[in-house]
């Protein structure tokens, strides 16, 4: 056809644009069998291309050009990048493996070193908080003993000197009597006999004085000896008492058995008990770039904080359900991570804002509620090697109170600080949707202070790209209706597969459900943004039967119900045909799924 068109002579007439039509056919299983998720469908698409205008008399009949279009279900793989209007590539964070066999040699070595440090800390009860940790009373040192002995020695010496003082006063009267006798005898000395007698008496007095001096010396020596004996006795008594106390302490220590190793659990996993402990230790190592000492310090601080915060008691507290619309878990992403939604716009409610942030006590309660919610979510994760042990966070900033609300900023800051210090590597991705301009400005200011690892987990999308961004990571059957998915309470569950198709501008898509037996066929359908025409009909296989209009063709506006649900009771073999006509100049995203049930009896 292309060659034939190129051989025709050019013409000045305007070319006519034909509408592209795509037909998708599904063959349904019998009603009593559960149909498997629809596989990728290969569709033959007749497309009429624009061709150069030709002279009317010689224009040959056009033949449609056949194209093969492969449609895929949106269960696990992200949509094709070509279908996205967002030219900016989203930062991709590849989550590391938690299997020991996938670790490098250095990483395995660091993990073993950290395990050794944890083992020693458990033996010495190092993880206990400072208030709970019992320390033995300090033992008296040698210097302390000397200080205790010195006052006792001084007291003994003082008492001994006081007792010895009167003995020295007895010498004075003896010397006085001696001088009086000498003076009397000097007056009477006239003869040699008297001199001799005097000499003899002097000799006697000298002998007597010598004896008295000897007596005094003996008494002083005895006093000094007594003092020394007393000091030695006191010293030996004090030393013996200290030795007795030391021996008693040693005997008690030998008699009491050593304390068993401390048992510590974190997020419901006992440390060093099994393989799950390795997965948790890897989180601390990765948060500190496999620096063992820093990872151990972080782990120790986290365990002590959890005890001080009363984590086990917090889990059982009843903190109310006023904030259940602010933070909630819903479904999972394409890799199986649980998804947590944080809806900041709920705080536009002034009453809720006042009850949550008006004073310090209320902000503290909000913080405890948020930590409790996170703890309960984490304990549902799989910490076995290779299991899903991280969460995807979706932060909806639509109608967020903004930076002017100091109380909200303060509470958020405190919560983020606690999460950063005590919950390492629990976020697989942070998706921010409906992002206002001021938030991007704030993010640009704090971005230089964030690590490359942290920034690689961030994804930002403005209001016009939020649904498209979420569908990159979350399948439509897992995504809530308010964010562009099909997940809601009703006939269909999150396990019912959804098919996703891009409807190009000025194109018509026809989806056919072939039915071979009597059944009740149900389907739900959504076009993101709508503004397209939709109709449904049943076409019997029998030539003599009539086509049944299930849904009259009409244009569906963007303000209408986002998801349309229909059902049709099939009584004979045939097919249900859904038609989506996109007459706009923008491409549209079509989501649909179907199921069959046994036909109810009349």
From TrEMBL:
* Compartment list: Cytoplasm; Membrane
Q: What residue spans carry the Low complexity bias annotation? A: 8-24
Q: Which UniProt keywords apply?
A: Cell cycle, Cell division, Cytoplasm, Lipid-binding, Membrane, Transport
Annotated Polar residues bias: 70-83, 100-110
Compositionally biased region (Basic and acidic residues):
86-99, 122-135, 158-168, 174-217, 242-255
Its main localization is cytoplasm
Q: Which domain of life is it from?
A: Eukaryota
- The UniProt annotation puts the region (Disordered) at 1-217, 233-263
Against PANTHER family, the record matches this protein to:
PATELLIN-1, PATELLIN-3 PROTEIN
Q: Name the chain's protein.
A: Patellin-3
* Lineage of producing organism: Eukaryota, Viridiplantae, Streptophyta, Embryophyta, Tracheophyta
Q: Which gene carries the instructions for this protein?
A: LOC106769175
């Amino acid at each position: 056809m292309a060659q034939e068109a190129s051989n025709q002579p050019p013409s000045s007439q305007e070319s006519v644009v034909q509408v592209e039509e795509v037909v998708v056919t599904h063959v349904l299983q019998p009603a009593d069998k559960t149909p498997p998720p629809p596989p990728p469908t290969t569709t033959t698409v007749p497309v009429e291309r624009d061709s150069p205008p030709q002279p009317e008399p010689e224009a040959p009949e056009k033949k449609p050009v056949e194209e093969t279009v492969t449609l895929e279900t949106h269960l696990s793989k992200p949509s094709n990048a070509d279908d996205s209007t967002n030219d900016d590539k989203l930062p991709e964070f590849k989550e590391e493996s938690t299997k020991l066999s996938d670790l490098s040699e250095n990483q395995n070595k660091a993990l073993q070193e950290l395990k050794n440090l944890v083992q020693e800390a458990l033996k010495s009860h190092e993880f206990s908080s400072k208030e709970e940790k019992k320390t033995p009373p300090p033992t008296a040192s040698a210097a302390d003993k000397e200080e205790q002995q010195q006052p006792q020695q001084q007291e003994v010496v003082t008492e001994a000197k006081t007792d010895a003082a009167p003995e020295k006063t007895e010498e004075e009267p003896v010397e006085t009597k001696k001088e009086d006798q000498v003076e009397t005898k000097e007056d009477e000395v006239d003869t040699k006999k008297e001199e001799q007698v005097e000499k003899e008496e002097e000799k006697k007095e000298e002998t007597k004085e010598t004896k008295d001096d000897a007596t005094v010396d003996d008494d002083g020596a005895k006093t000094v000896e007594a003092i020394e004996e007393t000091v030695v006795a006191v010293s030996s008594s004090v030393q013996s008492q200290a030795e007795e106390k030391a021996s008693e302490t040693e005997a008690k220590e030998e008699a009491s058995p050593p304390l068993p190793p401390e048992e510590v659990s974190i997020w419901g996993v006992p440390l060093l008990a099994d393989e799950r402990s390795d997965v948790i230790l890897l989180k601390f190592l990765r948060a500190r770039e496999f620096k063992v000492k820093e990872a151990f310090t972080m782990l120790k601080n986290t365990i002590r904080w959890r005890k001080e915060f009363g984590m086990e008691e917090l889990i059982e507290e009843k903190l109310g359900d006023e904030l259940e619309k602010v933070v909630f878990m819903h479904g999972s992403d394409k890799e199986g991570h649980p998804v947590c939604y944080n809806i900041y716009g709920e705080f536009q409610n002034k009453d809720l804002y006042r009850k949550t942030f008006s004073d310090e006590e209320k902000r503290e309660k909000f913080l405890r509620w948020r930590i409790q919610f996170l703890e309960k979510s984490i304990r549902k994760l799989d910490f076995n090697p290779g299991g899903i042990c991280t969460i995807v966070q979706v932060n909806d900033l639509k109608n967020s109170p903004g930076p002017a609300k100091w109380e909200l900023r303060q509470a958020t800051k405190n919560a983020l600080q606690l999460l950063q210090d005590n919950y390492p590597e629990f976020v697989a991705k942070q998706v921010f949707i409906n992002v206002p301009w001021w938030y991007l400005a704030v993010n640009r200011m704090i971005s230089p202070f964030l690590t490359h690892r942290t920034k690689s987990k961030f994804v930002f999308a403005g209001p016009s790209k939020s649904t498209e961004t979420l569908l990159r990571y979350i399948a439509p059957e897992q995504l809530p209706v308010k964010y562009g998915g099909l997940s809601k309470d009703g006939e269909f569950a999150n396990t019912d597969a959804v098919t996703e198709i891009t409807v190009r501008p000025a194109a018509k898509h026809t989806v056919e459900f072939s039915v071979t037996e009597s059944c009740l066929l149900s389907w739900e359908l959504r076009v993101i943004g709508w503004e397209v025409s939709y109709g449904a009909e049943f076409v019997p296989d029998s030539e003599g039967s009539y086509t049944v209009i299930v849904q009259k063709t009409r244009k569906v506006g963007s303000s209408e119900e986002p998801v349309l649900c229909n059902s049709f009771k099939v009584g004979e073999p045939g097919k249900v045909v859904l038609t989506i006509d996109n007459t706009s100049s923008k491409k549209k995203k079509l989501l649909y799924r179907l199921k069959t049930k046994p036909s109810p009896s009349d």
